[in-house]
UniProtKB/TrEMBL annotation:
It comes from Aequorivita flava. PROSITE patterns: KH_TYPE_1. One of its GO terms (molecular function) is DNA-binding transcription factor activity. The keyword Transcription regulation applies. Its main location: cytoplasm. This is Transcription termination/antitermination protein NusA.
Amino acid sequence: MENLALIDSFSEFKDDKQIDRVTLMAILEDVFRNALKKKYGSDDNFDIIVNPDKGDLEIWRNRVVVADGEVEDPNEEISLSEARKIEPDFEIGEDVSEEVKLIDLGRRSILALRQNLISKIHEHDNTIIYKQFKDLEGEIYTAEVHHIRHRAVILLDDDGNEIILPKEKQIPSDFFRKGDNVRGIIESVDLKGNKPAIIMSRAAPIFLEKLFEQEIPEVFDGLITVKKVVRIPGEKAKVAVDSYDDRIDPVGACVGMKGSRIHGIVRELGNENIDVINYTSNLTLFITRALSPAKVTSVKIDEEKKRAEVILRPEEVSKAIGRGGHNIRLAGQLTGYEIDVLREGAEEDVELSEFSDEIEGWIIQEFHKIGLDTAKSVLEHDINDLVKRTDLEEETIRDVINILKEEFEE
């Protein structure tokens, strides 16, 4: 009964941690064997009988009967006179099994045993949680904001599991309050010590890919394949889609009538601008599509250097480059090629970078931001227009124009 009473006192762990009885008893046996090793030096000659149905556990020590005065190892041997106190008809050489009561281990050992059990159960729980979330890597998960820190948001799911959403894995426009439900991708799960570290991301390209799976039935059913996703989180994304069924327009199916299907995804991502394009194995056509909304005149590809020279009309260049260079950067990531943009008739033009001795780098960068990277592209624009579109003073722009004009007057 002493053993049973103690086992029952451990049931709180089973109830709190939702651990099944069989697993609890297996952990108990392991904990008791460690306690026996500490007290007796070895647990080899002990039988531990576990009864999960009753929640009971018995410990029996097996020793060999030897003549009085010849006991060399008191853990494995018992003198004849001591054995006959247990049963009067024991003889030398026979085996004696004697039940060990928990109280025999001592109060301190029982307290240590209890603490060890708590530790083992926590370890078991953490292993289960680790395996559960490891299987969810790359999948969308929803959890509630529990605590907001400077460098991360701490989330809790319905089971009380802690999930970390680091600042760098959030969309820049993300703003959370305690109690908000947050969707993201389970990006990584690692064991730090014995505790699982679950990292969520809303900035990863796969989050956008999985949103397509959730929100667009044809993608979920496999009728449309998402070939590649590239993102600048919160700013712009490009998604290449394909279908093996010629009757399906993959771009139209993903975007929906007047953008109805993609609207929810855009809203989830903080109004990220999403370009959906038709994938093709024709590299020239793929690069042309990737630079959308710009209209490309021609493409020259160097497969060995993984570079593409793209020629456009002057009015299309700023579209190809995009705000902050986002469009051309994502097009390069999507196609795997470094893309150089040239204007039609640019053979007689001069790159702005060639004037770095006369024009400061930050000024050249301001022109690059609005898609102007050659001398003629700047000279084609009105001064007042350049003042409005850049952060440069009128006087600075006039100085630049005078320097550029000198180049062509020579």
